[in-house]
Structure formats: structure tokens, C-alpha cells
Write a structure and sequence with these properties.
The protein has 515 residues and is an alpha/beta fold. The chain is built from 21 helices and 15 strands. A hairpin with a 6-residue loop joins strand 4 and strand 5. The radius of gyration is 29 Å and the shape is globular. The chain starts with a strand and ends with a strand.
């Protein structure tokens, strides 16, 4: 397996940041609850079987070590691939900064189990045996998820049917049976499945896991929730001010929310947004209202009923962990930019934001096709195959023939204009114009038929272009937004991502893995 590099559209992964920023951030005073936090993470991970590397990181976490952290919703069997790339980015940067700062930096992955939009995570895309067709696999349930996804538990039949549908799409390799057995052994809880797979893939790296919806973790978050609730008006004003500053600087508005409290509450088995109006707190799906004291009492008794929205989640994460830096996708970095005034209001420095690595995988066949047609991989990754296909077809055109057709069009227009001027009545003019339209359609048909003939003549080449597109730019986007990590494991090896981590240390550009 070989790592190639191509020029990234963003600044390089590490050079964007100067060393003193990491040193200054690492020197911040640690939270007082680090031992309690480490105990909660240990309790959460214990059922998985904690590795020696993870136990070392838990000891460092308890002692107040800074963390490199990032998070994601729990997708179907860890879908899509960029979730893995975010984790790889966390691990690689934590390793690098541990060496640079001469102290342990702990890698942490935050599972966003509080989210309730199940439609975003209940499916995955897998290639057929030829790798030229994508099939969508959905979880085998018709039940709606109204609360957090961490509360959702599949039945045995739903889990088994989902696994069968998933495995059916994979090529049969020497790893397929083992993959089936691992999936069959997974628990039925949605995020429990996700965390177990992540743990199996990365336990030897020392990666720590926490689910934001884990009930003991909610107890630790309780005082921060109270602060957010008591100061919701000032926090909302800071958010709106910061968002406007971001927009005024030329950035696209990223966060759309109908809440002015920026917290969710689970009520009547639904996760509902809290709002504040006329001195009372309301829910967006229920008629009930609360006073501030009533919500504070509920928070004290049942903090697991409360969760953050997109505005307060970064703040909560910062108040729980001693964050050296946050690994984020492109959209995350943009919406964090709208939160700067909230951090200022709370007198807490915003963590360093580091873009996650973007990784593309190049199979031997696709590598061969790129070489055969002298294509530039960087062009494919940045603009897709459509411009390359259009340029190829243009090069295949008979320009003299097309110029002749164009001259014919102009001549037809000229002659029929002359006839129209000679017409002695509206009826004759209408007949001339109707005949003109008929000739225009015939010429247009001639052009379409000619271009269709070019495509037929170059059918093999265009199929090769399509195959390259479906592998490198599936669904008109980056490969990592569609590819499934288990399909990659099935085609290569169970340890592929650990091998990549070893090879990625200090690689500074977007990377392409030649399989």
C-alpha cells in the first residue's frame, strides 16, 4: 500500500498552525473534574475491553492531560468513510503533538448520541461487484426515532436483516465471513454498535470514546447545563452577534436554528427544542410551558433529559475536556466561526480548530485507467470527471463538420428572413415561420445525432470515465462521503486503518492511498 500526495485545496494539515499556539493552549489550567471525567470514560468503555494503550491514556486524562477531540453521529456500521478519517486525524495529531510538546496529548472521539435525526445515519452506500454501481442499504426498520439515537435499540430480527442486506452487497473475499460474524456479535443498541466497531478498529492506538448521551456523563454536564439555562439570553445575543460578524466578513451563514435557548429537552418521548418567550420556556412539539426554576429542578433531578444543540454543543465539549484542538470537517469549521462571541462571553478561549485529513483511495484498476488516458488525479478530485469527459468529447469532434452545420443554420435563418419579408399576408408569414422552425429542428436533430454517434464510437472510453467517476467522485462528491469503511476492509485488510496511521505521521498534504 502506497501513499501518494496531491496539493490540497485547503492549507496543509499542520503548517497552518504555529508551534506557540499549541504550547499556549496546552498551558491552560486544567478543569477540576478530570479524575471524575476519566472515571466516567472508563465506565463507558469498560464493556468493550480496555486496551493497555487506552488505560495509559485514561491515567493521563485523569491527571489533566489536554486532548485532541472530534465527534460524529453514529452511522450504520460506521458510515461513511470520512468518520474514520476524522478519527485518524485525531490520532495522528495527538501523536504528533505529544512529541512536539513533550507531554501526553490524549485522542478522544465524541459520539454524538444525543442527535435524533435518524434519517441522516440509517443508511449506507456499497458498490456492486464491478465497483461501477452504488446500492443504498438501509437499516431494516420502519420505526421512527423521536428521541436521541443512543436510545434506539434494534430488535434481533431487524439487526439480522440489516446485516444480511449489508453483507449481500459485498464481494466474497477471505474476510467476508469474519466481517459477518463481527457484525452478528454486535449489541442491538445503535450507538453501542458504532462504539464497538470503532473500538475494535482503533483500541491499539489509545483512542478514548465517550457518548454525549451517556447518563453518567450527563451528571458531569449538569452544572454547565444550569449555567447555559440561566444565561440563555446573553448566550443567544452573543451567538447572534458572532454570527453577524461572520456574515459581515463574507462568510456564508451556517447555523440555522429556531431556538433562542439552544438546548433540547426530552418530553413525551420526543427530543424537543426549548424556546423562551413572555417569561416562560416552551417546547416546539408540546403545549406545556415551564418556569426557569422548574427547568432547573428538572436538571438537578434528571439531567439526562437535557441535551445541546449545534450552538451549545461546542461549549459543552470545551467545558468537559481540556481541549488542545478540535478536529473538524469543512462545514464544522465554518459554523464554529459563528460561535466566537459565546466563548468570549464565557471567558473561555476557543480551542484551535484543525481540519480533518481528507483521504482518497486509488485501486490498481483506477490507477491504470488514469494513466491510460493521461488524466490528472488532482483535477478529478477537485472538479470531478464531467469537465474531463466534455473536453475529451470536444477533442473527438469534427470541427469542419460542426462549422458547416453552423453555417447551414445561419444560411437557413437568412433565407427564411428574406422569404418572410416577401410574404404578402399574415397567413403566408405564419407558414414561412412554421417551415423555418421545422428546418431548425432538423438541423438540431442532426447535431444531436452527430454527438450521439461520437459517444457510441467512444463507448469504452466513456465507460472507463464513468467507472473512474463512480470510484473517485461518487454522487458528485468526495469519495470519503460515500465509501463505506467495511467495504474497504473487506477488499483489503482488517488493519488497513492502523497501517495508514503509521504511514500518515507528518504527511502534510491531502493524501491518496494507492491500494
Amino acid at each position: 500500500m502506497e501513499i501518494l500526495t496531491v496539493k490540497d485545496q485547503q492549507k496543509s494539515y499542520h503548517e497552518e498552525y504555529v508551534p506557540h499556539l499549541f504550547k499556549e493552549r496546552a498551558a491552560l489550567t486544567s478543569h477540576k473534574h478530570t479524575q471524575q471525567l476519566a472515571d466516567i470514560v472508563t465506565e463507558y468503555m469498560n464493556p468493550l475491553g480496555i486496551s493497555d494503550e487506552q488505560r495509559h491514556q485514561l491515567t493521563e486524562l485523569a491527571a489533566g492531560a489536554p486532548v485532541v477531540i472530534g465527534g460524529q453521529q453514529a452511522g450504520l456500521f460506521v458510515s461513511p468513510l470520512y468518520t474514520i478519517h476524522k478519527i485518524i486525524s485525531i490520532i495522528v495529531l495527538a501523536k504528533e503533538q505529544s512529541e512536539q510538546l513533550a507531554q501526553t496529548i490524549v485522542p478522544v472521539f465524541w459520539i454524538a448520541g444525543e442527535d435524533h435525526d435518524f434519517s441522516e445515519v440509517n443508511h449506507a452506500y456499497l458498490y456492486d461487484g464491478t465497483h461501477v454501481k452504488l446500492n443504498k442499504v438501509k437499516v431494516a426498520t420502519k420505526r421512527q426515532v423521536e428521541t436521541s439515537v443512543s436510545d434506539f435499540v434494534l430488535t434481533d430480527d431487524e439487526k439480522l436483516e440489516t446485516i444480511r442486506s449489508f453483507i449481500k452487497e459485498l464481494d466474497e473475499t477471505e474476510r467476508t465471513e469474519a466481517i459477518y460474524n463481527k457484525l452478528a456479535e454486535l449489541p442491538n443498541g445503535w450507538t453501542d454498535q458504532f462504539k464497538q466497531l470503532i473500538h475494535e478498529l482503533f483500541k491499539q492506538t489509545g483512542l478514548l470514546l465517550i457518548d454525549s448521551h451517556y447518563q453518567p456523563f450527563r451528571q458531569l454536564e449538569k452544572e454547565t447545563f444550569k449555567y447555559l439555562l440561566k444565561n440563555h439570553q446573553a448566550i443567544n445575543e452573543a451567538f447572534l452577534t458572532g454570527q453577524q460578524k461572520s456574515v459581515d466578513s463574507g462568510q456564508q451563514k451556517m447555523i440555522e436554528t429556531s431556538s433562542n435557548v439552544h438546548l433540547f429537552m426530552t418530553y413525551e418521548e420526543q427530543r424537543q427544542l426549548l424556546n423562551f418567550a413572555d417569561g416562560r420556556f416552551t417546547l416546539n412539539k408540546s403545549a406545556v410551558t415551564f418556569t426557569g426554576d422548574e427547568l432547573l429542578n428538572l436538571l438537578e433531578a434528571e439531567p439526562e433529559l437535557f441535551s445541546n444543540n449545534v450552538v451549545t454543543r461546542p461549549v459543552m465539549q470545551e467545558m468537559m475536556f481540556n481541549t488542545l484542538c478540535f478536529i473538524a470537517g469543512p462545514s464544522e469549521i465554518k459554523y464554529w466561526n459563528e460561535l466566537t462571541d459565546i466563548f468570549s462571553y464565557m471567558k473561555r478561549p476557543m480551542p484551535i480548530l484543525v481540519p480533518r485529513m481528507r483521504i482518497t483511495y486509488l485501486t490498481p484498476r483506477i490507477q491504470k485507467l488514469i494513466g491510460r488516458y493521461e488524466l490528472q488525479l488532482e483535477d478529478i478530485l477537485t472538479t470531478g470527471m464531467k469537465p474531463l469527459e466534455q473536453q475529451f468529447l470536444k477533442n473527438e469532434e469534427n470541427q469542419q463538420l460542426l462549422e458547416g452545420i453552423q453555417n447551414l443554420e445561419q444560411l437557413i435563418d437568412l433565407k427564411f428572413n428574406e422569404l418572410s419579408e416577401l410574404a404578402e399576408s399574415k397567413q403566408v408569414t405564419a407558414i414561412v415561420n412554421s417551415n423555418l422552425e421545422h428546418h431548425r429542428k432538423q438541423v438540431e436533430y442532426l447535431k444531436r445525432a452527430y454527438h450521439r454517434e461520437i459517444k457510441i464510437k467512444n463507448d469504452i472510453v466513456l465507460r472507463h470515465f464513468k467507472e473512474s467517476e463512480l470510484n473517485l467522485n461518487p454522487r458528485n462528491g468526495l469519495q470519503e462521503r460515500t465509501w463505506h469503511p467495511i467495504q474497504l476492509i473487506n477488499d483489503t485488510d482488517f488493519c488497513i486503518f492502523n497501517d495508514i496511521i503509521e504511514q500518515l505521521m507528518y504527511t502534510k498534504n491531502q493524501v491518496v492511498i494507492a491500494l
